[in-house]
Design a protein that fits this description.
- The protein is α+β, with helices and mostly antiparallel strands and about 150 residues long.
- It folds into two domains: about 110 residues, Umud Fragment, subunit A (Ribbon), CATH 2.10.109.10; about 30 residues, no CATH class.
- Helix content is about 15%, strand content about 30%.
- Strands 1-2-3-7-4-5-6 form a seven-stranded antiparallel sheet, with no helix packed on it.
- Helix 1 packs across helix 2.
- This is Signal peptidase complex catalytic subunit SEC11.
- It catalyses: Cleavage of hydrophobic, N-terminal signal or leader sequences from secreted and periplasmic proteins.
Length: about 150
């Protein structure tokens, strides 16, 4: 799932911590700040999103979430609604061409979370097993054989 313009991600797991922190785990397939195979940890708190933060967002009409940096934050004084504008680190302009037709800003409901950490290279296991299913079957067979032949 690589995209030449934007950074593609594959949503893998959802994990809830008992102290009311919820994190999404995202496997990166292509990025400039992060490398292919890195797993990105997301957190969506009620804290305001700030320029410079890296967010993962969905755009209406697109299946694949995008990982980009926030470059502008616009708060409407009348409603308090916060809108953000994003840009890929390697892109010359902002992401308005990636947004839905006529959309100029991302609203809160578009944003899946902000990046709070990552594990480098760990996602390669998933990438390899997805792109080369034979590896997955060999691994399952080897583990099955190990279980059958092990002595207790």
């Amino acid at each position: 799932m690589s995209l030449p313009i934007s950074n593609a991600v594959e949503r893998n797991y959802f994990f809830n911590w008992s102290v009311s922190f919820s994190f999404d785990f995202v496997l990166l397939k292509a990025s400039s700040t992060f490398l292919q195979g890195d797993i990105l940890f997301l957190h969506m708190s009620k804290d305001p999103i700030r320029a410079g933060e890296i967010v993962v967002f969905n755009v209406d009409g697109r299946e694949i979430p995008i990982v980009h940096r926030v470059i502008k934050v616009h708060e409407r004084q009348d409603t308090g609604e916060v809108n953000v504008l994003t840009k890929g680190d390697n892109n010359f302009g902002d992401d308005r061409l990636l947004y839905a037709h006529g959309q100029l800003w991302l609203q809160r409901h578009h944003i899946m979370g902000r990046a709070v950490g990552f594990l480098p290279y760990v996602g390669w296991v998933t990438i390899i097993m997805t792109e080369k299913p034979i590896i997955k079957y060999i691994l399952i067979g080897a583990l099955g054989l190990l279980v059958i032949t092990s002595k207790d």
